[in-house]
Amino acid sequence: MDKKIITTNHAPAPIGPYNQAIQSGNILFISGQICIDPATGELKNKDIQEETAQVMKNLEAILKEAGMNFGNVVKTSIFITDMKQFAEINAVYGKSFEPYTAGNLAGFPARETVQVSALPKFVNVEISMIALK
């Protein structure tokens, strides 16, 4: 089994014993990302929209480093601390993916959204992804 560590300075450095992403063959596993701005190391979380947008930017940077984009994503896991924020998170998240249309097979990935009691650095949303090249 081949295993390649994917890392970029355009996404936050891990805050624990894990990598930003691991690629094995044509499958990319991206660790959960939170709203850390990689340029400053600070949280970008003045509201849930800004927080989710930063998470998606971090995920996009890792995908790009692996030579992929959101069209390659087949599965996401979303962890949130308040299900009442689901609609706002979903609106920002959804803008990163092209809706399925005839001839466009990218569409939206499979996913689950789970409410949790707390997340790292006490943020409100964390998203992980699996992508295929």
| Count of structural domains | 1
Question: Number of helical runs?
Answer: 2
**Structural class by secondary-structure content:** alpha+beta
The major beta sheet can be summarized as:
6 strands, mixed
Number of strands: 6
Helix content: 10-25%
| Beta-strand residue percentage | 25-35%
What is the spatial order of strands in the main beta sheet? 1-2-3-6-4-5
Features:
single chain; alpha+beta; 60s Ribosomal Protein L30, Chain: A; globular
Q: How are the secondary structure elements laid out?
A:
Layout: E1 4-6, E2 21-24, E3 27-33, H1 48-65, E4 73-80, H2 86-94, E5 110-115, E6 125-132
Parallel strand pairs: 4-5
Antiparallel strand pairs: 1-2, 2-3, 3-6, 4-6
Descriptive report:
The chain is 20% helix and 27% strand. It has a single domain, classed as RutC-like (60s Ribosomal Protein L30, Chain: A, 2-Layer Sandwich), CATH 3.30.1330. The model has no long low-confidence stretch (mean pLDDT 94). It is of the alpha+beta class. It contains 2 helices and 6 strands; from the N terminus they run βββαβαββ.
Give a short overview.
The protein has two helices and six strands.
